[in-house]
């Protein structure tokens, strides 16, 4: 049996904001009483124009202008709030650092519908863009890691995939709008984050002064060279290292890359190799120069394969949420006083049958999310279902999450939730624990957990469209 729903995706970025509406065709493939609903077809109904993100004079997000923008796009798409079943509001790049970012995205979600809401930090934004650009899917087809560089106005967000699985995520203060220009070639803005690099290079890029095209081109070339050396595993200078946001990359070469984000339109586009002032000033920033620099640097590097991204500027927004309802088994560890839980991001463990690796794997993936963010741990099962294996798994899960204040929320596919939950409870020293089974949740999913009904627990798994 098929069902059609409408999904919305809303992306509020450093430079631009955009909205997409899609029609999803859901099919029920279940052969038992437990639903197995999957997305059978995805059709984009409406793509908004690319809007400049509205900001106030102090640089904060103009919430009222954003709300008006969204309302206008609903009207242009000829859709009402009630017709849109699900979706995602994502706030990214430097916009996510604004003081009122969380309030803005909360208000947008309330206006648009009951969506998956994520104020994306730099690592999570990397993952979302990587899935949207097609890097995860492409990594399944070749025998080497694939990195997606999502280059926007304020940041470059990088996600690395191998065989479809996330291997690393990091971000740098590299972007096309970190230097802004007036129509008469003067510098109107230089980001504090790149001023040490500008100084180290001896460039005369100062606010209020006339810009030298050679200096702007040199800065763009340095951005591209930094990212290329990251792919080759070559060292960076201390000033270059300071461009990393929160943490650096894992020590591995990146032999295949693709690019998304607004600057990617300039990398893959048909621009001339050497840009004059007319092309440079097209957007009032150095984005065209940055794109041209990345194109030259990566096309001339034989050790790195340049791939074509499936999506560029729309890579992040193209994956609004869809959902499928699942019912957990009847033998679970559940406490209805702690429900309902909504929009909980999933951390998927790749090798739960290896208890000794769980702590390091979980903490690496946990770092993508804010410390106070409630998460759910998902995996297929422990492999072996004997008492010793379950006890080792329970110990590792409790150890991996030690010091966290939220629930220890675990969902697994094997029908072992009650036994595993009780073992965790014995070792967790009074921590709140929910353990559910017969639930399949993948990296990038969000889940909702409802109150128990007739001895079972309803769980909604919300899958990001671009990676389902």
Largest sheet: 7 strands, mixed
Spans of at least 5 consecutive residues whose pLDDT stays below 50 are: 319-325
Strand order of the largest sheet: 14-20-19-15-16-17-18
How many beta-strand elements? 20
What sort of overall outline do the alpha carbons produce when their principal axes are compared?
A: globular
Distance between the termini: 19 Å
Category by helix and strand content:
alpha/beta
Share of helix, binned: 25-40%
Strand content: 25-35%
In quaternary terms, these chains amount to: single chain
Write down the Rg. 23 Å
Count of DSSP-assigned helices: 13
Mean pLDDT over the residues: 83
């Amino acid at each position: 049996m098929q069902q059609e729903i409408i999904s919305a995706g809303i992306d509020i970025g450093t430079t631009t904001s955009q909205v997409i509406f899609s029609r999803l065709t859901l099919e029920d493939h279940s052969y038992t009483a437990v639903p197995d609903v999957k997305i059978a077809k995805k059709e984009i109904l409406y793509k908004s124009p690319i809007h400049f993100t509205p900001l106030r004079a102090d640089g904060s997000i103009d919430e009222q202008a954003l709300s008006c923008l969204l309302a206008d796009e609903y009207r242009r798409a000829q859709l009402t709030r009630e017709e849109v079943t699900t979706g995602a509001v994502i706030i990214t790049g430097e916009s996510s650092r604004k003081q009122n970012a969380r309030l803005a995205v909360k208000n947008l979600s309330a206006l648009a519908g009951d969506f998956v809401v994520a104020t994306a930090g730099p690592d999570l934004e990397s993952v979302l863009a990587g899935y949207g650009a097609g890097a995860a899917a492409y990594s399944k087809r070749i025998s080497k890691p694939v990195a997606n560089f999502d280059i926007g106005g304020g940041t470059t967000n990088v996600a690395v995939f191998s065989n479809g699985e996330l291997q690393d995520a990091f971000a740098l203060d590299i972007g096309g709008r970190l230097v802004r220009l007036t129509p008469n070639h003067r510098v109107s803005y230089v980001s504090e984050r790149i001023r040490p690099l500008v100084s180290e290079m001896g460039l005369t890029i100062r606010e209020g002064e006339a810009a030298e095209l050679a200096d702007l081109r040199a800065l763009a070339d340095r951005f591209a060279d930094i990212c290329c050396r990251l792919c080759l595993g070559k060292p960076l200078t201390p000033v270059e290292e300071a461009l990393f946001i929160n943490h650096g990359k894992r020590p591995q070469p990146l032999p295949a890359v693709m690019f998304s984000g607004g600057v990617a339109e300039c990398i893959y586009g048909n621009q001339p190799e050497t840009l004059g002032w007319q092309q440079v000033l097209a957007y009032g920033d150095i984005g065209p120069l940055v794109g041209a620099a990345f194109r030259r640097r990566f096309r001339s590097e034989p050790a790195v394969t340049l791939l074509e991204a499936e999506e560029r500027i729309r890579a992040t927004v193209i994956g609004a949420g869809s959902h499928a309802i699942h019912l957990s088994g009847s033998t679970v560890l559940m406490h209805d006083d702690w429900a309902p839980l909504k929009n909980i991001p999933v951390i998927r463990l790749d090798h739960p049958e290896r208890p000794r690796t769980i702590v390091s794997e979980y903490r690496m993936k946990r770092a993508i999310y804010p410390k106070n963010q409630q998460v759910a741990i998902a995996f297929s099962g422990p492999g072996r279902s004997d008492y010793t294996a379950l006890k080792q798994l329970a110990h590792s899960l409790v150890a991996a999450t030690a010091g966290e204040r939220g629930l220890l929320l675990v969902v697994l596919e094997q029908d072992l939730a009650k036994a595993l939950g009780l073992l965790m409870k014995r070792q967790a020293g009074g921590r709140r624990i929910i353990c559910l089974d017969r639930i399949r949740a993948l990296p990038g999913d969000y889940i909702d957990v409802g109150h128990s009904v007739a001895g079972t627990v309803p769980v909604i798994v919300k899958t990001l469209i671009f990676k389902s």
